[in-house]
Amino acid sequence: MATKMVTSIGKGEDAGELGKSLVCEVKEKLGGVDPGFAMLYASSRLDLEKLLKAVRKELGGTPLIGCTTAGEFTETDVLKESVALSIVSASDDYQFHVAVATGLKENPEACVQKVVNAIPSPPEDYAHRSALLLHDGLAGKGEEAVLSAVSILGPKVNFAGGSAADDLAFKQTYVFCNDEITTDSVALCVIDSKKPVAIGVKHGHLPVTGQLTVTKAVDNVLYEVNGQPAWEVWKREMAQEAKTIGIDVEKLSDDSEVGQFLIRYELGLTTGSEYKVRVPLSKNEDGSLNFACTIPEGAGFCIMKSPEEAQIASAEQAAKYAQEQMGDNKTAGVFVFDCVCRGIILGDKFFRGVDAIKKVVGDVSLIGFETYGEICRRPGQMSGLHNTTTVVMLLPA
After folding, report:
1. Are 55 and 16 in contact (CB under 8 A)?
2. Dist CA 385 CA 277 (whole Å)
3. Quick one: which H or E segment has residue 176?
């Protein structure tokens, strides 16, 4: 029997009842086939313990990972403050192994190593190994987590994933693995399969400024650009561009207004002919800027912008990159990792990016969430941690 993926999504005041109803829905769609793996995305505003307890009770020992989010979607709906659940059916073509570890902030490599150590070696009759990786989106160690995973898992393991979010509160994000709810953590689902998964990635940003240089940065805090306070550089360089959409940089007062400005004009690290986009989340009183991951001192970058149509087009292109790798294989399901920044840029048009992906992959099950960072590891593509980027993973049937 071909591998099957099904999804459900919904909202409700009682997290336990909501979790139970979503599992009942996916079980009905599976039609009596046993579940092999579960992915769970949930708004941080819900009772997470109650939700996970209900889902696990209904699913039993099915391997599960997931996280809190800033928006959830499936092939049927794009929602906020909801729960989205996907199930991949058990089959002879796949084995799923999950693990989680804490301590990401203090030692990313040790944290990832602990997770990988809990995963068994690949069976001989499964030729392909890939992975889904989720991590605390506010730990500030997303890039280090990805680089550590690349180093430990090896160059043949391709993977996708995302940074957990918390509905733009920027206070605390959570990662799920089986019965555990953790923070400062990394969760991993390693997929051993007889057919290779396909992964595509693309952002829709273009440089606005000339080349700038990070002259002072510590971890995920950018202090100086070209020897000047980072916030002052952002205001000066983007003042004219911001005016075209009605933003006066000298009148930005509260944190919300500043955040909306920063999310529209992000940092693009120069990597050959491409850019890795990094989102400034907020500013500090000393004019420094806080990012979701480490900003390397001495790095060259441009400040970027992205028109709405480019955001939709890049989502479609990410799906096309993945679809091209599928060959004659049919798709069982789609995992999408899409930045919350894209949601802010598109606003109530965010669904158009999801529709663009659906246009490429066809009538198949799809699950995704709005992240604080997107992960892609595949040779020949923009590997690493990204922002305002779409990552699409296709699971062969």
Report:
1. no
2. 9
3. strand 175-177
Render pLDDT for 321-350 as a digit per residue (tens, 0 to 9). Answer: 999 999 999 999 999 999 988 888 888 999
Could you read off the pLDDT of 353-392 as tens digits, one per residue?
Answer: 999 999 999 999 999 999 999 999 887 655 678 877 899 9
- By three-state DSSP, how is residue 337 classified? strand
Tokens 């690949």, residue? 122
Task: Tell me if 75 sits within 8 A of 42, measured CB to CB.
Answer: no
What distance lies between CA 336 and its chain's CA centroid?
8
Strand order in the sheet with 94-102: 94-102, 185-193, 128-135, 158-163, 374-377, 384-386
First vs last C-alpha separation in the chain: 9
- From residue 202, alpha-carbon distances to 122, 125, 316, 357 in Å are 30, 33, 9, 12
Stretch 179-188: mean pLDDT = 98
**Cβ neighbourhood burial of 249 (10 Å; 0-12, 13-18, 19+):** buried
Q: How far apart are CA 118 and CA 137, in angstroms?
A: 22
